[in-house]
UniProtKB/TrEMBL annotation:
EC number of this enzyme: 3.1.21.3
Entry-linked InterPro entries: Restrct_endonuc_typeI_TRD, Restrct_endonuc_typeI_TRD_sf, Type-I_RE_S_subunit
Record flagged with keyword Ribonucleoprotein: no
Domain Type I restriction modification DNA specificity: 5-166
One Pfam family, short name: Methylase_S
Keyword Cell inner membrane: no
Coiled coil feature spans: none
Keywords, alphabetical: DNA-binding, Hydrolase, Restriction system
UniProt enzyme class: hydrolase
The protein's name in its UniProt record: Type I restriction-modification system, specificity subunit S
Species lineage: Bacteria, environmental samples
Length: 469
């Protein structure tokens, strides 16, 4: 930080605050739980990021509080999570206790709770750097007490808090507007894709050969499914198993992974096959028989469908474009290799839009997982547009998606800029540059001296002994 502004002082947190830890009573003792004492955990703050907090999901009885090292901190205490993760901040709006995941600060008269709250928000990254531990980083009570805090005159603290919250209120409104735009863009994207696969995105051309002719030329049978959208007259329906070779993937044979005749190849898992894109950042390899590797090798244009997982993930997928040589797919990923004249991306878009509900309705559910069998996937009804129209649809989808992508990037830039402005506001606040100094304010040094004198005159509090259950 820059040098202290005139009238300000700096002190260790432990010199101007009571640093208080927390604890958890025995969870197997019912008498400790469900009382009138609010009890807060880091998980509670992860779900409620408001400035003021009055409790958490659970509460303690008085005997539960006294059974452990938890402390009832007064209203105005700034709660700061010291592990898992470090850096959630809130102000207790009434007396509360916390678990051991906090090093909370009860400010003396040198600091207002609001000024301390915002300063800890500003110092979060610095405090995270002080954490230590092997399983997860944690800031100890001793370390938290050494964190240097900047102390402005009380009247200036109040002006700073007002200025921060006015600026953040405007940023909140701007970010809320950007998030609304993001949701609207998502709806537009969904609407474009739905229109693309039901004949509503581009006008039909009466000179196009109808899809029925394409199917007839390929010797394929059209379908007449029920419960599907109405299509233009030049379009047709066909089952996926009719217009594509649909197969499952490889099951790992753990006992034969050391077989010298096997070859090692990359393969796609469910996690790689997302809705509308492929996540290829982490690719696993598997050893299989050479003939199995050749049989299951993915080809550009193969449409991938997930077989199992959560129910809302059934059938999600995208098109393989040959990104990785010799890649195959596991048994929980189906691939459909289409007949000529049927555009793979349109089939996949249909699967990710209309197909989402269709697959959910027909998937089988076990205790933990849902699944889709090969017979059901082959029966999936697919709309077929005339070949020439398919090309026009894809060009229009790409044009409109490019525009939406640019809009989403602009939203991301706006949100990033807002986050940067928040950091700048806090930096200016705690360098004394956000509001003007008033020479009539009592200097912080005078206030600190008075507090030190009062503290030195107080008797040392005895530590409460922990009860045993």
């Amino acid at each position: 930080m820059t040098e202290l502004p005139k009238g300000w002082a700096e002190a260790a947190a432990g010199a101007v605050c009571d640093v208080v830890g927390g604890a958890t009573p025995r969870t197997d003792t019912a008498a400790y739980w469900g009382g009138e004492i609010p009890w807060v955990t880091p998980d509670d703050l992860s779900k409620d990021r408001r400035k003021l907090v009055d409790g958490g999901r659970r509460s303690l009885t008085q005997v539960g509080l006294e059974s452990c090292a938890a402390t009832l901190v007064p209203a105005g205490t700034v709660l700061f999570t010291s592990r898992a993760p470090i850096g959630y901040v809130a102000i207790a709006s009434r007396p509360v206790a916390t678990n051991q995941g906090f090093k909370s600060l009860t400010p003396s008269d040198a600091l207002t709770s609001d000024f301390l709250y915002w300063q800890l928000q500003y110092l979060t990254e610095t405090i995270r750097g002080l954490g230590s531990g092997t399983t997860f980083a944690e800031v100890s009570k001793k370390v938290m007490a050494t964190v240097p805090l900047r102390i402005a005159p009380i009247a200036e603290q109040e002006r700073i808090v007002t200025a921060i919250e006015e600026a953040f209120s405007k940023l909140d409104a701007g970010e809320a507007g950007l998030r609304v735009v993001r949701q609207l863009l998502k709806r537009m994207r969904d609407a474009i894709l739905s229109a693309a696969v039901t004949g509503r995105l581009v006008p039909q051309d009466p000179t196009d050969a109808p899809a029925a002719k394409l199917l007839a030329d390929l010797g394929l049978e059209a379908a007449e499914p029920e419960g599907v959208p109405e299509l233009p007259p030049s379009w047709s329906w066909a089952e996926l198993g009719v217009i594509a070779e649909v197969v499952g993937g490889v099951t790992k044979d753990s006992k034969r992974q050391s077989d010298p005749s096997f070859v090692e190849v990359p393969y796609l898992r469910v996690a790689n096959v997302q809705r509308g894109f492929l996540d290829l950042e982490t690719i696993t390899t598997i050893r299989v028989a050479p003939e199995k590797a050749a049989q299951l090798e993915l080809q550009p244009g193969d449409v991938l469908f997930n077989e199992g997982g959560d129910r809302d993930k059934l059938g999600r997928g995208w098109v393989w474009e040959g990104q990785i040589a010799s890649c195959i797919h596991q048994n929980h990923v189906f691939r459909a290799r289409l007949s000529g004249g049927v555009e793979p991306k349109l089939v996949s878009i249909w699967g990710n839009t209309f197909g989402r509900g269709w697959f959910e309705d027909r998937g089988k559910q076990t205790t933990n997982l849902a699944s889709l069998n090969l017979k059901t996937l082959k029966a999936f009804p697919v709309p077929i547009a005339p070949v020439e129209e398919q090309s026009r649809i894809l060009a229009e989808v790409e044009r409109q998606m490019s525009f939406l992508d640019a809009c989403e990037r602009a939203v991301d830039v706006g949100l990033a800029r807002s986050a940067g402005l928040r950091r700048s506001v806090l930096k200016a606040a705690f360098e004394g540059q956000l509001v003007p100094q008033d020479p009539s304010d009592e200097p912080a040094t005078v206030l600190l001296e008075r507090i030190r004198a009062e503290r030195s005159a107080q008797p040392v509090a005895k530590r409460r002994a922990r009860q045993t259950a």
